[in-house]
Every structure is written in C-alpha cells, then in structure tokens.
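Before a colleague's protein record goes any further, I have to sign it off. What it holds is a sequence and that sequence's fold in token form. Would you go through it and say whether the fold makes sense for this chain? The record follows directly below this note.
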Amino acid sequence: MNYKVFFVALFFLTVLVSCKKKSERIADDPQQGTITISADESFRSVSEALTERYMALNPKTKINLVIKKEDLGFLDLLENKVRVIVMSRELSAEEKEAYKKKIDMKMEPGKFAADAVIFIVPKNSARESISMEELKNELNSDQKRIIFDGTNSSNLNFVAQKLGKVPNQLKFSVISGNKNVVKEISQYSDKIGVISLNTISRPYDKESEELKNSVKILPVISKNKTFEPNITNIKAMTYPFTRVLYFLTNEPYYGLGNGFIRFSCQQLGQIVVEKEGLQPYTIFNREVQMR
C-alpha cells in the first residue's frame, strides 16, 4: 500500500469535512446570505427602508422582512425562527431571563431611531389635545373611546408600560393596522386613534402625506406643559410618548444579522432613518470648513 498517497488523501478529506462543517455552521456573513427579521407593523416603513438600502449595497444578501406583532416577534427570536427583531418597549424581567436562557448571549440592544406613539382624531373634531390624566381615565372607561391597531401591538404595549399598566388592564377598541386606524377614524367622531409616528412620518411620500393630512394630531399635556409629537420634542425626549427603536438578535457571530444592525446604527443607516422622518439615535456632527 502506498502510505504517502493514503496520508495525502486523508489530509484532503479532513480539510474537506472541516470546510463543510464550517460552511454549515456559518452560512452567511455581512455581504452574503439570507436571513429573516421581524418588525411590528408600526415600524414597517423604516424597517423596509433599511432592509432595502442594505440589500442594494450588498447585492448578494437577502433579508426577508416579516411584519408581526412585537410580542410574537420576540417569541420567534427565542425559537430561532427569525434572526433579528425590532423592539420599542422595555422587556420584562421574565423576558430578559427567557432571552438569557434560550439564546445564551449577552443582550445588546442596537438602538437606531426615536419614534413616537401619537394620538389622532377626525379633522372636524372639537378636541385639540389630550392630557395624561384624560388618557388614563379613558383607558379605564367602559366606553372604550381609545382605538389601538390591535392587541399585542407595539403601540398598546408601549402606552400600557408608560402608564404603569399591563395591556389586559386597559379598556379600548381595536381597528386592525395603523393605516386603517387613520382611514377609519373619521367614522368615529368621539374616539381617539393611537398610531405610530412612522406610519405618517415619511416626507415627500404621497400616501404618508395623505394619511397625515386626513386627521388631526393631538398634542399631549403632561405636568401642565403641552408637547407636540415633532422631531424637536422627540429628539429632546420631552414628548411623553417618545420611544427608542432597537434591534435584538440571536446571532452569535458577526453574520448578516449583526452586519445589518451595525449598518442601521451607523452613518448610512442613520441617514435612512432621517429620510424616514424619524429621529436618528446617533447624531452625526456635520462640520463645514471654509477657506
């Protein structure tokens, strides 16, 4: 038997098996591969813009965006059904423990934008604002005048958390979907719709502008001060229902998921966020040199 040929063949077989196992373990990197991410319908616009821009810059990548309620997206992350999710509320102690147990990674939120929950009424409504006390009272009323876009939605979860409640303690009505809340609120003169700013924030977008112009956006009164849900107040975090959007991942290596998160949190991604009409989380100083 030719032992030299045998050992050479054994060496190449070992290398081949090793490479195959490595490719099975890590099937993607920031420049190539396919993953799925999940985002609540409230953040559809900015999530679509970021994924589309990333794939345009990295043509060998495919990011499948699944629109799913925030709570359900978190469960999918724990079960490894998605690689990345978009969140807005603070996780509970139980959820943090579940992440630690199931994912076995340090939780490192990738903060990328400031959005807001906003309150709308029909254009012809006599109401001009809503106070925090009024909101609390309405959410305890059997008349259910507050309309959310669904149960388990990010808007409901965030408002409940802000008021120190859990969603099932609140009384409210439902119209499925942020855009549908805007389109149908005119039929209910005595009710107040709750949507995400991102639903109507994209400037120069015809649909976004039409939705925005079809309703009246209510300022929120808190501690005897009135706050509009505009970029100035969102940037300063003075609007009471400002929220920070962030990514969570179950990816233990620097693959496509972490590559996408890094892109979204750095300058190019932050420009996309700004073009969406939201407040970028990272502020880039622009210096102009004159000679």
Remarks:
- The CA atoms of residues 23 and 112 lie 31 Å apart.
- Residues 17-25, 286-291 have pLDDT under 50 and may be disordered.
- Residues 28-113+244-280 form a domain with the D-Maltodextrin-Binding Protein; domain 2 fold (CATH 3.40.190.10).
- The chain is about 40% helix and 20% strand.
